Amino acid sequence: MDTPGIPLPPAAGDTALKPGTFAGVPVVVTGGGTGLGKAIASEFARLGASIVIASRKAEHRDAGEQAMTELGAPVLTVECDIREPDSIAAMFDAATDAFGIPGVLINNAAANFPVPAEDMSPNAWRTVVDITLNGTFFCTREFGRRHLDAGSPASIVNIGASYAWTGGPGFAHSAAAKAGVKNMTESLAVEWGPYGISVNCLVPGLFPHEDMTADIQGNLAGTHDKDVCQPALRVGHRQELGWAATFLASPYGRFISGHTLVVDGANWQRRSLVNPTMVPIREQMGRGDFEM
Ligand code: HXC
Ligand code: NAP
To answer: Total domain count for the chain?
Structure first.
């Protein structure tokens, strides 16, 4: 070791768990063709899992398929809109036909765009809550029912966000939905604990990536230097989220349930002696005066 203290994080491609930890385990990752979903799927793939990628857009699914194939993992991609329970059931049928009943569900798919609450249409609110909260529940319900019927243990990891606790000015819809996801994690962990189904939530801090939507990238662009704005003086490396997801779902994490693990370098905690000057959100977003 060159430096005193503890070693630096290993490079991408390294794994914390034993090789083959997920050998033969089918893992469903919703939204697994882009960004953090793809990163999480990659870490399961490195550990021997068969990967099922469920999402709406063919180009996203193709990107996920290519990444998993390059890692040598068996992969199935399925068109699925998580707002539609029938589409979810068909996805799990296809996954089970291909690889057997999935043992792990990563509820990663979500929707989000920045908009001041007073400018948000009812359908904009409904769309984000429908995908992020309702979709997560529908996938969880379908997965849970299949394991209750089979009597098999399983693991669910819901991807959350820290504004579940802090509120998310400019993201009221997504923040409310993620608060619901965190709370639902706690309810279902208890309901399904007796059947060996663990339910956890994993909260990413700031993990910029090339697949981020233009809206979200535009919002981040307003933060001129992302690293110096973080207590850890850096943003997350996507494999760090994947390592946490694989641990939570692994046999080594079996006694962890109902927990929300934050991987953000302490970014969501308060970090100043006094609050900065309040600038209204619509002003921060460069919007003009509100008009009915
Ligand atoms: C205001 C908007 C809007 C915007 C859409 N809407 N974008 N309103 N500002 N930027 C409104 C539309 O006008 C419409 O309302 C309603 O939302 C639904 O829009 P559609 O385009 O019809 O919806 P749909 O085709 O279903 O697409 C869903 C989507 C889209 C959420 C709008 O962006 C999407 O598919 N996103 C998936 C990927 C994603 O969001 N990733 C972000 C995850 S990152 P009206 O009233 O006009 O009908 C994340 C945390 C990041 O969650 C944290 C970073 C710090
Ligand atoms: P992303 O690249 O935009 O991924 C979102 C994924 O969700 C896409 O693959 C999309 O695929 C899928 N999706 C959206 N709506 C869907 C629907 N109705 N049905 C099925 N799939 C749908 O965003 P990301 O940054 O990787 O975010 C991944 C997760 O991390 C999300 O839960 C997000 O809230 C959370 N998060 C991210 C950050 C960050 O810094 N990146 C921070 C906090 C939390 P299709 O378009 O093909 O459907």
So the answer is: 1
Ligand 2 pocket test: which of 28, 29, 30, 34 has the largest number of ligand atoms within 8 Å of its C-beta?
34
Cα 260 to ligand 2 centre (Å): 18
For residue 219, pLDDT over 90 is answered with: no
Q: What is the Cα–Cα distance from 92 to 275, expressed in whole angstroms?
A: 48
pTM, 2 dp: 0.97
Q: Out of 28, 29, 36, give the residue to mutate to test ligand 2, the one with the largest number of ligand atoms within 8 Å of its CB.
A: 36
Six token digits for residue 88: 């979810």
By residue range, what is the domain housing residue 242?
Answer: 26-267
Among candidate residues 29, 117, 19, the one with its CA nearest the CA of residue 75? 29
Cα separation, 12 vs 30, whole angstroms: 22
Whether 144 is in a domain gets the answer yes
For the stretch 61-73, pLDDT in tens is 999 999 999 999 9
Q: How far is CA 238 from the centre of its chain?
A: 11
Residue 104 in domain: yes
> Is residue 283 assigned to a domain?
no
What CATH number does residue 124 fall under?
Answer: 3.40.50.720
Tell me: pLDDT of 27 over 70. Answer: yes
Q: Is the CB of 215 under 6 A from ligand 1?
A: yes
Directed axis angle between helix 35-46 and helix 238-249, to 10°?
Answer: 60
Q: What integer pLDDT is reported at residue 1 of this predicted model?
A: 53
Does residue 289 form part of some domain? no
Pocket of ligand 2 contains residue 55 by CB under 6 Å: yes
Active site residue 195: no
pLDDT at position 4 over 90: no
Catalytic residue chosen out of the listed positions 163, 171, 243, 268: 163
Determine whether the shortest distance from the Cβ of 163 to ligand 1 is under 6 A: no
